[in-house]
Q: What sequence folds into this?
């Protein structure tokens, strides 16, 4: 097909390392051993502390990072979107290839839009993973321009949806947020009324206001929307 990229086994530039940032030790160990057998300087990094990752790549020749899309944390232990790390690595001229399990298309799209060279499923065969990594490390494309633009368009769509959700949640008052949190925890209206020492009529009014402001038609929809944002 016209959109397919044919992967040909090729070695990376001499001395270019491959840094594996993956949360599954067995997965990264197998890849590291296979890469070393292929003559590649492969090593593991710590995805938990993103600041440490940037310090580590600063001490290495420019190469390839294989990035697991599990969320890492910076030096202050705050959650960091992997797309932020992709941007930081690209600014340092590193090639970034992301790997993912099932789902997480919003994070894949964000990583591609931030400059990642491509994405590979963890369920792929070892042979395919190696071929993709070696091609990306050597500067060869691992996805077509049409595929890249498709991911970028998805990222725009996800971002627009997030902005819309933020707009809706920003309408909630402090008490309505507290009521919604109790609904998410599985509390019924009677229990919420007892918790705040108010009447059932007051709680029902607050729940109706939550539904209107979030533009949903049921408590289940409100809870699902709020849970998805967490």
A:
């Amino acid at each position: 097909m016209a959109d397919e990229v044919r992967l040909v086994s090729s070695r990376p530039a001499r001395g270019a390392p491959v840094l594996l940032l993956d949360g599954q030790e067995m997965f990264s160990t197998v890849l590291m051993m296979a890469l070393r057998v292929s003559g590649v300087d492969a090593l593991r990094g710590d995805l938990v502390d993103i600041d440490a990752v940037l310090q580590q790549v600063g001490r290495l020749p420019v190469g390839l990072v294989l990035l697991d899309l599990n969320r890492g944390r910076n030096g202050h232990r705050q959650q960091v979107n992997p797309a932020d790390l992709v941007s930081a690595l690209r600014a340092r001229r590193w090639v970034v290839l992301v790997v993912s399990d099932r789902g997480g298309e919003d994070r894949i799209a964000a990583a591609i839009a931030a400059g990642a060279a491509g994405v590979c499923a963890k369920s792929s065969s070892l042979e395919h993973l190696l071929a993709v990594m070696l091609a990306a490390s050597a500067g060869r494309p691992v996805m077509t321009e049409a595929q890249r633009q498709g991911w970028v368009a998805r990222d725009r769509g996800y971002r627009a949806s997030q902005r819309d959700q933020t707009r809706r949640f920003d309408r909630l008052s402090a008490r309505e947020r507290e009521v919604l949190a109790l609904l998410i925890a599985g509390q019924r209206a009677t229990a919420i009324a007892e918790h705040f020492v108010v009447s059932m009529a007051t709680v029902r009014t607050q729940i109706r206001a939550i539904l209107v402001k979030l533009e949903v038609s049921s408590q289940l929809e409100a809870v699902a929307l709020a849970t998805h944002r967490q």
Q: What stands out?
A: Residues 11 and 66 are 16 Å apart (CA to CA). DSSP finds ten helices and seven strands in the chain.
